[in-house]
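Study this protein:
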Amino acid sequence: MKRRIPIAVFFVVGQFVAFFLDGSITQLLSGTLFKYPNTMVPCLTMMWLILAAFFGNSKKLHLTAWAAIVGFIFDMYYTGILGVYVFIFPLVVYICQSLYQMLPPSFLSGFLVYFLGITVLMSLGFIANAFIGQAPASASQFLVNTLAPTLALNLVFLAVSYFPVEALYRTHR
């Protein structure tokens, strides 16, 4: 008889992989992703959390707690400014999960909700960095040169990973 691996194990391993893929993709493709004046920021860590909110049982997976923990580690490892993503990650996961539950479950609904989630994530990150004087651009430059390219990149990542992740969660219910 085959033993089933709990979905929580897949979630944690996937979160770990997504976290380090964020940095690895950024490092490997930095010449392309950060070509002046545009900036494309991969948000695979957030994508994994949002897809878990779409397809998983958030109470079983403790998504809010995981989002805060991952946000804290993300702050320490990638930004060096503690506290920004600790609050933004759980908020974005909550917003995306709430919106997705109101819509009929489909790829287009997930695409729209993820679009809004990345917009909220990047915008709140920009506002927080502007508040402490770390934002290097104006709001209009942020919208055109950072948010738009970041959305394009991350929506491609979502299009590629949506159905495989959905199948993973469906087979481990």
Remarks:
- Residues 139-171 form the longest helix (33 residues).
